[in-house]
Amino acid sequence: WHGISPALLMTIGVIIAGLVLFGLRKKWAAAFNRLSPRFSFNLLYNKLLEGGEALSLRLTNMYMTGSVRDYLAYILIFTTLLLAGLMIYCGGWAFDPAANSPILPYELILALVLVGAALLVLFSNKRLPAIIGLGTMGYVVAMFFVVFRAPDLALTQLVVETVTTVLFLLCFYFLPELSEKTAKRKFRPGNLAVSVAFGALVTVMALSAQGNRAFAPISRFFEDSYQLAGARNIVNAIIVDFRGFDTMLEILVFAMAGLGVYALIKLRLGGKDFR
Predict the structure, then answer these.
(1) Which region holds residue 179: left if phi is over 0, alpha if psi is between -120 and 50, else beta?
(2) Which range scores top for mean pLDDT: 35-39, 47-51, 225-229?
(3) Where do the structural domains in the chain lie, given as residue ranges?
């Protein structure tokens, strides 16, 4: 037993007070009944409940607009504030471009093509140009992998992008045509601000990741590849030994993508042969 404590004494006091009030209920009940019904606790509770429901309904109608664009804006705003706050709190704003390689002309050209394809997707009023722009973005990313000497990632990106483009074409083939709208598009500064803020945050995070090392560098694996993996070719040592599971899963991706392409080629819907 914990003994006599303030919590025990308060409990005993509440029980005694309740018994006294219950015993004297006939005396104070008459005084309570003389009060106007407008000042009853039941009415106060009902008013608070109705006010809470009205307030919640008003707030719900403010943000539940039924527009996917608005919901996406809410998600991006919350993500931007959360990540920016974490980076400020943790001091993650660190970027030192001194150790970066210079930007070569063909890298700049690829970046411009990537931006142009993104703008094509953004401002296109037709589905086919939008799909072409989206596919162009994927293939440019694959070219960047080639430039940065990651051929395995480039091959994976090429296969996945090809399958994705084919899937988009097949899906939009069965959808109705887009209706041409003569009304001029309205410029929404709020959407522009959210897009710029989120894009700037992702860019800053990517740049800051270069100046923050959470783990030890892996250069020793490159230097000791023969002793650790028994391979004189560092590329073979990385693909087969150091990241063998990653390579196995990439092969699985290739196999699944190949089966998907084969199934799409052989697909027949409604008596139509897409071969």
Answers:
(1) beta
(2) 47-51
(3) 6-59
